[in-house]
TrEMBL record, chain A:
InterPro entries: PDHB_mito-type (IPR027110), THDP-binding (IPR029061), Transketo_C/PFOR_II (IPR009014), Transketolase-like_Pyr-bd (IPR005475), Transketolase_C (IPR033248). GO terms for cellular component: mitochondrial matrix. Its cofactor is thiamine diphosphate. It holds the Pfam family Transketolase_C. Keywords: Metal-binding, Mitochondrion, Oxidoreductase, Potassium, Pyruvate, Thiamine pyrophosphate, Transit peptide. GO terms for biological process: pyruvate decarboxylation to acetyl-CoA. One of its GO terms (molecular function) is pyruvate dehydrogenase (acetyl-transferring) activity. It catalyses: N(6)-[(R)-lipoyl]-L-lysyl-[protein] + pyruvate + H(+) = N(6)-[(R)-S(8)-acetyldihydrolipoyl]-L-lysyl-[protein] + CO2. This is Pyruvate dehydrogenase E1 component subunit beta. The lineage of its organism: Eukaryota, Viridiplantae, Streptophyta, Embryophyta, Tracheophyta. Its EC number is 1.2.4.1. The keyword Metal-binding applies. The keyword Transit peptide applies. It comes from Aegilops tauschii subsp. strangulata (Goatgrass).
Automatic annotation (TrEMBL), chain B:
Keywords: Oxidoreductase, Thiamine pyrophosphate. Its cofactor is thiamine diphosphate. This is Dehydrogenase E1 component domain-containing protein. Gene3D superfamilies: 3.40.50.970. One of its GO terms (biological process) is pyruvate decarboxylation to acetyl-CoA. The lineage of its organism: Eukaryota, Viridiplantae, Streptophyta, Embryophyta, Tracheophyta.
């Protein structure tokens, strides 16, 4: 199943199961979705439940949050999360904080979804990763699926969740196909929020990653295994809440950690993971924590520069080796 | 003779707190009255129909204005006066508490604007929704909130309407379809249009009111929400409470056009005052 099919089927099934679920966003209806994620849903559910919006993120996101205040379950699509910045006040101040500010009176069962992070050659304003930004905020859940199973299970969990969820997809993963177990196809399937997945077990070094970087980390682990280093790859799945227990348990086993993310390094996801391990498992570390992130520059356009601005498999391999040889 | 304190108060008014109503009624009675005054009614409870002409005509934009003649009763008018007086006293008391530093942070007062929320309630039901920005204390009252939970919230107490976690700007009353209480100027307008979306989606036959000020009237997101509401035919009513100041800046320095009722362009508008 491709990630695209996984997302489409999850939306379809959740809309079928609950009449209060509806979709809104640019091109989600008649265009069948800017990336075809919502293909066929307008025909099936009609224009009252699949709504094409004008290019006005602040307005339509506010309308989505207001509808959620009254108990509907909107799924708001951002064509990319770069455009969510136009609506970020509604995501954070109107959605994330309302349950707390109202002492529980108002709940906001809304999902904000769309592609996040670098695509290919789209330049600086269309390539940023927002995982660290949204994961900073109490009141939000932030999910980052990698595989088709992740996409299907996490989107279903997000739609069923009573609180606002930021669902960060990846454009380059939409077409990728993954093998899935039969249970994933069941309409009640879901993946728990806040639990990471060990994609590959290992004993020498822990590599944490999310979204597209999970694939890169798995490739790196394969290369490392040929050089005698057994890497454990953790697919985070959930950035907020972060599965600190799984990360720390792994580091207590391997004693070495490499964090991988595509976004800018400063104040990124890796910084938080490193701090969690320092707080909980410091004595278990045999080497300083290594951080692999995107370059600290706005994303360049030229292909060779773009390649240098995002992590590559070789960077992860090098970092893992540094973590393994650094101890005395 | 004046209405006895034990008689049931008119429904939907703030005097539905018997002890409070009794205290206020008793305070209005003079200590001693000459026999000549004994036959005079001091407070009207008459429900005889009364027609009043509004003090100013309505100015309309692409809609027919309503008649200036309003049907009411003396009892209803007295109830309005009572509720508005209560709101005024609450806001002035809040001002004193704020200056005494018993209310912290921000405290935005609604004195002078009481007629807007008091009058609105007479035309709608609690199934209709209201949302506003941070000048929200009196709307909380008009939606059925009580003074104790309001003051407790202002002073950060657990029995406050948001359990002390919201403060002056974050009063809510979901059971009366009052959705707050918002600190970001202008944000409440798209949210209010979203409330209207849900009402239409569920075919509820109700409407939503988004209250905003002349300062918020310049916010871009208001026009984004208006565009979508007009396209999708949402039961949304945007109510501009023009107090001629946006924070500290006078209207004439912030708005090129003060004709807020016309700013909807293709959306009908009404200038009330």
């Amino acid at each position: 199943m491709t990630v695209r099919e996984a997302l489409n089927s999850a939306l379809d099934e959740e809309m079928s199961a609950d009449p209060s679920v509806f979709l809104m966003g640019e091109e989600v209806g008649e265009y069948q979705g800017a990336y075809k994620i919502t293909k066929g849903l307008l025909d099936k559910y009609g224009p009252d439940r699949v709504l094409d919006t004008p290019i006005t993120e602040a307005g339509f996101t506010g309308i989505g949050v207001g509808a959620a205040y009254q108990g509907l379950r909107p799924v708001v699509e951002f064509m990319t999360f770069n455009f969510s910045m136009q609506a970020i006040d509604h995501i954070i101040n109107s959605a994330a904080k309302s349950n707390y500010m109202s002492a529980g009176q108002i709940s906001v069962p809304i999902v904000f979804r769309g592609p996040n992070g670098a695509a290919a050659g789209v330049g600086a304003q269309h390539s940023q990763c927002y995982a660290a930004w949204y994961a900073h905020v109490p009141g939000l859940k932030v999910l980052t699926p990698y595989s088709a199973e992740d996409a299907r299970g996490l989107l279903k969990a997000a739609i069923r969740d009573p609180d606002p969820v930021v669902f960060l997809e990846n454009e380059l993963l939409y077409g990728e196909s993954f093998p899935i177990k039969a249970e994933v196809l069941d309409s009640s399937f879901s993946v728990p929020i806040g639990k990471a997945k060990i994609e590959r077990e290992g004993k020498d070094v822990t590599i944490t990653a999310f979204s597209k970087m999970v694939g890169y980390a798995l490739q790196a682990a394969e290369i490392l295994s040929k050089e005698g280093i057994s890497a454990e790859v953790i697919n985070l799945r959930s950035i907020r809440p972060l599965d600190r227990a799984a990360i720390n348990a792994s580091v207590r086993k391997t004693n070495r950690l490499v964090t991988v993310e595509e976004g800018f390094p400063q104040h990124g996801v890796g910084a938080e993971i490193c701090m969690s391990v320092v707080e909980d498992s410091f004595e278990y570390l045999d080497a300083p924590v290594e951080r692999i992130a995107g370059a600290d520059v706005p994303m360049p356009y030229a292909a060779n520069l773009e390649r240098l601005a995002v992590p590559q498999v070789e960077d992860i391999v090098r970092a893992a080796k540094r973590a393994c040889y650094r101890s005395s | 003779p004046p209405r006895p304190a034990s008689a049931p108060p008119p429904p939907g008014t703030l005097a539905s707190q018997p002890a409070m109503a009794a205290a206020m009624l008793l305070r209005r009675l003079p200590a001693a009255r000459p026999p000549l005054m004994a036959a005079t009614r001091l407070i009207s409870d008459s429900t005889a129909p009364l027609t009043i002409e509004t003090s100013m005509p309505f100015t309309a934009h692409i809609v027919d204005p309503p008649s200036r003649d309003v049907a009411t009763t003396p009892a209803e008018l007295v109830a309005f006066f009572h509720d508005m007086s209560l709101m005024r006293r609450m806001e002035i008391a809040a001002d004193s508490l704020y200056k005494a530093k018993l209310i912290r942070g921000f405290c935005h007062l609604y004195d002078g604007q009481e007629a807007v929320c008091a009058g609105m309630e007479a035309a709608i039901t609690r199934k209709d929704s209201i949302i506003t920005a941070y000048r929200d204390h009196c709307i909380f009252l008009s939606r059925g909130g009580d003074l104790v939970t309001a003051f407790a919230e202002l002073m950060g107490r657990q029995v406050g309407c948001s359990r002390g976690k919201g403060g002056s700007m974050h009063f809510y009353k979901k059971d009366a379809n009052f959705y707050g209480g918002h600190g970001i100027v202008g944000a409440q307008v798209p949210l209010g249009c979203g409330l209207a979306f849900a009402q239409k989606y569920r075919k509820e036959d109700t409407v939503s009111f988004s209250l905003y000020g002349d300062g918020a009237a310049n916010q871009g997101q208001l026009f984004e929400a208006l565009n979508i509401s007009a396209l999708w035919k949402l039961p949304a009513i945007l109510v501009c409470e023009n107090n001629h100041y946006g924070m500290g800046t006078a209207e004439w320095r912030a708005a090129k056009s003060p004709s807020y009722y016309k700013r909807g362009d293709y959306v009908p508008g009404l200038k009330v005052i």
